[in-house]
Amino acid sequence: MSAIPLPKQPEVNIGTLGHVDNGKSTLVQAISGVWTGRHSEELKRGITIRVGYADAVQYRCDLCEEPYNYYSVPVCPIHNRECEFVRALSFIDCPGHHSLMITMLSGAALFDGAILVADARVKFPQAQDREHLEAALIMGVSKMVVAQNKIDVIDKKRALASYDEIRGYLEKIGLQDVPIIPVSAQQGVGVEALMYAMDKYIPTPVRQLDKPFLMPILRSFNVNLPGTPATMIRGGVIGGSIIQGRLRVGDEVEIAPGIPVKEGSSEYEPIVTEVVSIQAGGKSVEEATSGGLIGVETSLDPALTKSDALVGEMAGTPSKLPPVWKTLEVDYTLFEKVIGVEGDVDVKQISEKEPLVINSYTAVTSGIVVKRHGSRLTLNLSKPLCAWPGDRVSICRKIGMGWRLIGYGLIVG
Question: In the chain, pLDDT over 70 holds for what percent of residues?
Fold first, then answer.
């Protein structure tokens, strides 16, 4: 899923967070050389609408002084000598616009760590800065670095004031140890120090490679061009990040909840398919492991995977997937205030018959509250989801024109 083959499969996923126009995609491009916005509307408007992705490599020069000794190229531009390979990683670039919060939550489910990109020109935090930080913490993302962006268009006084605003807010929410790195993504300034901080503060997690394969699906598509002869049609492609286990070419894979048993039905049945090929780190591989983003060509009819039709499904070893829930019980916690809106808006108690949106891994589904007892909700879901008991879900409510994050919960088994 990268234009340039990497020396090794990516082993860590780093997400980007922050308000729209803070320069998240520009920063990813400065590090990886890849513009993550591929959708036509993204290219037209210059903002991220879908979850974007890009692979990159971290190299270290032993002759350069820390923290300016990390590069995204294998040869040190200062000493003109080969650098030491550190690790390959995948960026997951999430949209910052308030109306796309649910899309952001789907991407955050795969983060091992995150870069919060702050706009140094304006007072911190902006609405979606706060919303993205809360969402990341809900999803269990605690390894972070802040990129204080756009320092090339402000003076020293504003830069210091911006730093103090960011530091004060991080301390307020318990992230006092998160580093703040001044950068100009547009000019490529500060990228070396940011990559140093990424290596030190976002470590590669220990992976559970001995467990059955499991991968939330983040993208799905049809790679066949119009007019492709029937004998040359390739199977549908799914993309995501393995959260446990391994995947090999030729493996059988189950996808759940799957597809409706018939058009318009509320009953779903899982799909079983075979792995035809795997793309990881910009090249074909025989085996992929946890960490990084991969693309998997399957034997599925590409009509099933086109236009992200399988996003939110769970792929895994047959008969080893989590349960599928049509009715969901959740022990929930509400925020005191609505996150991501201007002003001081209290979160009202959830009521029975209220519609909510639930995020679990990359799945997004709506549900109606059929019962509320104490801190427990029972919801009838419009589309089932696949998740383990004890997994965390985010809870959104319709406020104004968009769905806003109001709390989180744990699935009750």
Answer: 92
Do 324-411 and 214-316 fall under one CATH topology?
Answer: yes
Cα–Cα distances in Å, from 63 out to 56, 68, 92, 94?
22, 10, 31, 35
Place of tokens 């018959």: 353
Topology classification of domain 324-411: Elongation Factor Tu (Ef-tu); domain 3 (2.40.30)
Average pLDDT over residues 190-212: 95
pTM over 0.70: yes
Assigned token pair, 203:
């470590």
Which of 362, 361, 359, 332 is CA-nearest to residue 347?
A: 332
The answer, yes or no, to whether residue 37 has pLDDT greater than 60, is no
Rounded CA separation 160/232 (Å): 59
Q: How far is CA 406 from the centre of its chain?
A: 19
Cβ contacts of residue 117 below 8 Å, gap of 6+? Answer: 16, 17, 18, 22, 23, 24, 27, 146, 147, 149, 185
How far apart are the two ends of the chain, measured CA to CA in Å?
36
CB atoms within 10 A of CB 127: 16
Task: Write out pLDDT tens, residues 212-224.
Answer: 999 999 999 999 9
DSSP string, 57-81: EEEE-SSSPTTS-EESSSB-TTT-S
What residues have CB less than 8 Å from 234, skipping those under 6 apart? 223, 224, 276, 297, 302
Domain range 13-201, CATH architecture: 3-Layer(aba) Sandwich (3.40)
